[in-house]
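Task 17 of the worksheet. Students: predict the tertiary structure of the chain below and write it out as structure tokens. Keep your answer in the requested format; marks are given for formatting as well as content.
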Amino acid sequence: MTTPTDIAAFIAFWRDSSLKERSGAQGHFIALCRLPRIASPTEADPHGDWFTFKKGAKKTGGGDGWADAWRRHCFAWEYKGKHRDLNTALRQLQQYALELENPPLFIVSDLETIEIHTNFYNTVNVFHRLTLDDLTDSAQSNLLKWAFLEPDRLQPARMSSIVKPFLDNLQIFN
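Model answer:
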């Protein structure tokens, strides 16, 4: 079980880190996996078939790209350096989506902030932003655990289930 000391050490290390994206991304990801006691890609899948770093993909519109981390049926993850534009990272993942089996979650991070964007069919897209400090909140840190192990728990309500009760209450449709 992750202790408050483990979380505090992770936060302190990554807050003080001056590593660039290229040198810090995999270390950050592995350390993040350790918090909820999830095996890293190389430990869980030594062949890189379903959980891997640098998953290659053809971009929509042409060209090649790589998701920094990918877990089949869960997520594609893209890193940027600290304080960089995470929307750029999200757009990159969206260009690879079809080649990456259209994962239900797109996750982007700049080593201090993590954004989880939903990508479920026939639902609204929502996102959750977590800062380093949010990792001390179990409700927030559960979002990460679910992204790895139970991505369907992050699925937004389907639009029809939101709109139908409203329409049922309108006299015109009864």
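Marker's comment: The two ends are 53 Å apart (CA to CA). Residues 4-173 form a domain with the tt1808, chain A fold (CATH 3.90.1570).
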